[in-house]
Amino acid sequence: MRILITADIHCGIPGKLPDSIWCLKLIRNYAKEHDIQIVIVLGDLFHDRVNLNIEVLSEVYDTLRTAKEEKQRWIIFPGNHDMFLKNSWKVNSLHILGDVIEVIEEVGPLVLDGTTFHIVPFIYYESVYMETINKIKARKDDILLTHIGINNATLNECFLIKNWSVVDLTKTNFKRIFTGHFHCHQECGKVIYPGSPIPFRFDEGVVDHGFLVYDTKTDVVEFIKSFEVSGNLEPKPPDFITITDDNLDKAANMVPGNNVRVILGKEYTNNQLSELKENVKGMGAVYVDWTLPESADKEIAEEHETLTTDLKTPEAIFESWLKIDKPKLSTETLLAIHKTISQEAEERFVVEEEVLE
Question: 162 and 76, same structural domain?
Answer without folding.
Answer: yes
